[in-house]
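=== RUN LOG ===
request id: a7f3
mode: sequence -> structure
chains: 1
length: 421
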Amino acid sequence: MTSQLAYKETFDCVQCGYCLPACPTYASMGKESHSPRGRINLVQMAAEGKITIDEMTESMELCLGCRACETACPTNVQYGKILESFKEVKAAEAPAPFMENLALQKALPNKKLLSAMRASLRAYQKTGMDTLARKSKVLGILPEQLRAFEEIAPPVEMPNKQLRTGSHSLRREPKARVAFFTGCIMDVFFAKINDLSIKLLRHAGCEVTVIKEQTCCGALQNHSGDTGTSRKLAKENIAAFEKGNFDYVVNAIGGCGAMLVEYDHLLANDPEWAERAKVFAQKNKDVSVILNKLRISFCRELSGAVTYQPSCHLLNVQKVADDPVQLLESIPGITYVPLPKGDMCCGSAGIYNIVHYEESMEILDAKMEHVQKISPDIIVTSNPGCHLQMGLGVKREGLEDKVRVVHIIELLAEACGIDHK
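=== RESULT ===
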């Protein structure tokens, strides 16, 4: 199985160390084996038969997969491909537990099940069962990480079905024809942000369509080494979005967007799908890119100091750095304050903060030290995982009454006079 490791790619690394300051786990753990170049060396040694997969597993699994090392690397090492090859080999040697496979392969792509989950969570919150559960300490049976995130879970909203039905045309010629990607977990916890994104795109002059046949992007499956399921989901999405003639496929989810723009890499060796995947990947854009390009108009003046914690996959994979900042700087009334080391991962990384909670909290605590230095009124995010992680960071620091955590779409909608109803 080690022959499937991305051995050739490891030789692009010249062990210069430019990646070290960019790596959150190297910064927090201080071990060479927990740095990008250290992990690349481990993959190389495993491919050469000098160590076993088990001997390198701890180091590799503690990697956040933020891919900041790729941005810092002067020799363009394909770290993502190297990491992915390890995860694929590891998954083949030691398959994930049954319940994890069930969640990734069956639950996330199942819209009916996700809808039921959303309705259940909404009922749990609306009926006051969440407050009762906390007061009765019944949540004490849950692991610490699940208790922590339960306490800061956002209000679950139902999606606006009317808004998402068919293609929403404009009275004038549209500036762009857009298909909107809703995601799976995003649409359970943050359906409101998806709805506001659609409204903002229309406000900017786009014709927006929500494709019913779309499914999970496959990112979490890919991160766990289940590339077979990821490829299956990629093909389903490509086929679904090919049914319309769209200028862009737009999403408001940094992590999903990173997966969508790499479908061409995922399906590169499939003759039937390679070119179709390339066309699809090129059309995928983060919502901030489109809104910034079309220059949305504002009608409200906001106030306060605002900082931005970018999604690693938006920044390092999609290479979107300027658009969110330019949008924030254009909002009337606010003061934009750059976050020191804002390009360093917050520690969310998919389900990393659940699986490696203690390590994730060390990274988050370091992030919050930088937040405290600038004392913002609002922290803006661009990915649901980052949103929850920064919300937890604010709670851990006792700043809930002083600092709001919002998705960039929420702030833009507020400034544009667009509400969720």
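=== NOTES ===
Residues 298-415 form a domain with the Rossmann fold fold (CATH 3.40.50).
The chain has a mean pLDDT of 93.
=== END ===
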